[in-house]
Amino acid sequence: MHRAFKGRILALGLTVFGLGFGTASPPESLREAAQPSGMLIGTAVRAAQLAETAYAATLAREFNMLEPEDAMKWEVLRPDPQSFDFSQADRLVDFAARHDMKVRGHTLVWHQQNPPWLTQGRFTPDQLAKLLETHIKTVVGHYRGKVFAWDVANEAFDEQALGKLRDTIWYDQPGIGLSGDGTAYLERCFRWAHEADPQALFFYNEAEAETLGPKSDAIYAMVQEFGKRGVPIDGVGFQMHIGNLHPDVASISANIRRFTALGVQVQITEMDVSLPVDAHGNASAEDLQRQADIYRQIAAACLAHPGCTAIQTWGFTDKYSWIGSHSKKARGAALPFDRNYLPKPAYRALRGALAAR
Ligand code: 9MR
User: Fold this and answer.
1) Which of 49, 113, 281, 313 has the fewest CB atoms inside 10 Å of its own CB, making it the most exposed?
2) Other residues' Cβ atoms within 10 Å of the Cβ of residue 161
């Protein structure tokens, strides 16, 4: 059996066995609700906020997995070409260990949040290849046994030219020496990561590829081809930043089905559902209800497939979310807890969906 699915299948067996006994009280947290199904319920986390009592308490109480929102990106880890600064990320990994949470690592290869010494350094492809290999092996090695799954590469497919690879410093500007060879540069990265920690799971993570379409088709072709040749890829992350309040859940479900049928895991990695907000950051009651429905439907779509192994939100409180800065405060209120850490309808919907399995 693919090791990926063991946790959820074992948990499903225990649930069926346990159903005959007594009446359990309703779950008091997301992580408690997720226990019977073995689902990982995670969130992106900011190191600076751990000092805030309500932030840390909510995080530990509700989630069984966390992912550094920014702390494992090149910009933070690499002050200069020679050094690594793991201080922020280590704090998050320590927090996870103390609260019995798994850690997802994000991300080793991306075109954003790279330090200026790298992007403006005029390196040759050979030099870039060496820098990237050292980075991947050092970071994955540092967290060996502590980070169970990595987003090796993030958003490598183009947003406009759908189905094509994006032009980036790692691919063809100037690239690591495999420019024009399609996904060969990504394959190289997966192999380096796997060498550094053969036990970890390695994911390809993407935005706007949740539904069937040219972008997810291109990822599907890559995963299929990697699988045939034994490239160590274990799963695909669908980010799930939702802005359209009528997402095509049937298409999302069909997409999860076809990827898991290839034998890889699917994880929902960055879910949020942004709403139009007023000058005070408040959304309408109707939209909050609609948002709750969307959280419920997406969670149910994941839970319906044994190979869909994690549901993760991109932050958990509306107090800290990338959406406001991204939308000039026109949208927000995207997460399951409000700015005062009070649960929203979306929270209850998510917990209910998890408990229903
Ligand atoms: O949430 C992250 C925010 O703090 C950063 O400023 C931003 C920089 O682009 O990246 C955000 O996270 C992104 C993630 O790493 C990859 N997928 C899209 C996320 C939202 O932009």
Assistant:
1) 113
2) 11
